[in-house]
Amino acid sequence: MRNTQFPVQRYQYCGSEDIGLGWQHGEALITFKKHGLLGNRLQYLLCRSCGAVLYQRVAEPHRFPPVK
Ligand SMILES: [Zn+2]
Asked: How far apart are CA 43 and CA 27, in angstroms?
């Protein structure tokens, strides 16, 4: 079942539509406080055929402070 909420449905380079979903844990956490532990794991979309990482996002973008 294709998940249409993600921006990548097909990897153009290898032509595969077999897209996988993954989460990165541990030290790659992106925090919204400079020295804080609270943060978001990175969510990944990857090609299950060749392993290319196609897209990444944080789960709760509204919790991060704006730049300006
Ligand atoms: Zn691929």
From this structure: 14
**pLDDT confidence of residue 27:** 66
Round to whole Å and give the CA distance between 35 and 13. 39
Look at the pTM and tell me if it is higher than 0.85. no
Residue type, 37: L
What distance in angstroms lies between residue 11's CA and the mean position of ligand 1's atoms? 6
Quote the ligand 1 centre to 6 CA distance (angstroms).
16
Whole-number Å distance, alpha carbon 20 to ligand 1 midpoint, is 10
Contact by Cβ (8 Å): 40, 30: yes
